[in-house]
Amino acid sequence: MFSTAYESGVPWNDTHWENARFQELLISARAELDSVKRRDQYTEMQILCSEQGGQIVPMYANYVDAASSKLAHGANLGNSFQMDSSRLTERWWFA
Q1: Residues 6+ positions from 77 with CB-CB distance below 8 Å
Q2: Residues of 32-43 as b/e, b for ≥16 C-beta within 10 angstroms?
Q3: Fewer CB atoms inside 10 A, N or C side of the chain?
Q4: pLDDT digits 0-9 by tens, 47-72
Q5: Alpha-carbon separation of residue 80 from 12, 84, 85, 89 (angstroms)
Q6: 64, 69, 73, 75: CA torsion to nearest 10
C-alpha cells in the first residue's frame, strides 16, 4: 500500500504528500532482508503517515459483507468471524 498510494510521484498518491524520510525508508525496506529491521522501518513509515501525512482515515471497517438475491439465509447471522461466523455452509443456500 505504501508503494501504491504514498510513494512520491505515484498516480494514486491523492494528497500529493512527499516526505524525504518516508521515501528513504520505503526504498530501504523493500530491499531489507532482516525482518526485525524491516518491521522497524515500516513502523516508522506508519508513524510518519499518521503524524505528517496528508490523508485522514476516519474509520476502518472490521467486516465487509455483500448481498445477492441469488443467496438466502435464515434469520440469524453471526459476526464473530468471516462468512457468518464460519457457518456459511450450514446456514446459507442458493435461492
Answers
A1: 84, 91
A2: beeeeebeebee
A3: N
A4: 999 999 988 877 777 766 677 889 89
A5: 33, 8, 5, 16
A6: 80
Q: Is 12 helix (H, G, I), strand (E, B) or coil?
A: coil
Write the single-letter amino acid at 76: N
Grid coordinates given for 43? 513502523
Q: What is the pTM of this model?
A: 0.60
Ordered alpha helix ranges (H), the chain: 20-31, 35-52, 82-86, 88-91
Query: In this structure, are residues 13 and 7 in contact, taking their beta carbons and an 8 Å threshold?
Result: yes
And the C-alpha cell for 72? Answer: 438466502
pLDDT digits (tens, 9 = 90+) for 41-52: 999 999 999 999
C-alpha closest to that of 45 among 58, 32, 59: 32
